[in-house]
Design a protein that fits this description.
Strand content: 25-35%
Helix content: 25-40%
Distance between the termini: 48 Å
Shape: globular
Structural class: alpha+beta
CATH architecture: Ribbon
Oligomer: single chain
Order of helices and strands: HEEEEEEEEHH
CATH topology: Umud Fragment, subunit A
Largest sheet: 8 strands, antiparallel
CATH class: Mainly Beta
CATH superfamily: Umud Fragment, subunit A
Number of strands: 8
Length: about 150
């Protein structure tokens, strides 16, 4: 499927794919959200952007840029605690321009989205604790609601 996606992107078209995996949770949800990809160049991506890259082992990954240097960059999944890189510019396939949650489109250039992305980057050392606390509270509230019925 990826050769077809790359061909469409090279023709200047945008491509929408469903998110799989939990590495970008909570911003992107497995089999719920989809992303709209657009072809771009290295000069047009910045810290906080979500990009599709191909690893050296030919695995395709959709992660957020956490650090960008002149000749390489580093990535991180929003639900992960480790960085990946250095990634070379030629490994980048596309940039996410929109996120689709059901029928609602969220532009990645939206100011609210950019602020939330920036804040999530800032809490990098505490992400795991935040996500675990969220899951714990969700389970706790479900139990409380089911016991009160």
């Amino acid at each position: 499927m990826m050769p077809v996606i790359k061909e469409l992107l090279d023709e200047g078209k945008r491509v929408r794919i469903t998110v799989t995996g939990m590495s970008m949770y909570p911003f992107l949800r497995h089999n719920v959200d989809s992303v709209e990809l657009m072809k771009t160049n290295y000069a047009n991506v910045h810290r906080g952007d979500i990009v599709l890259i191909v690893r050296k082992d030919q695995q395709y990954i959709l992660h957020r840029i956490i650090r960008k240097k002149k000749k390489y960059f580093y990535l991180n999944g929003d639900g992960q605690q480790w960085c990946e890189g250095p990634i070379l510019p030629e490994q980048m396939i596309a940039k996410v321009c929109n996120i689709w949650r059901k029928d609602h489109c969220i532009s990645c250039s939206n100011k609210r989205f950019k602020v939330l992305s920036f804040l999530w980057l800032m809490v990098f050392p505490f992400r795991y604790l935040i996500i675990e606390t969220y899951f714990f509270l969700s389970k706790f509230l479900k139990r409380v609601r089911s016991n009160s019925m």
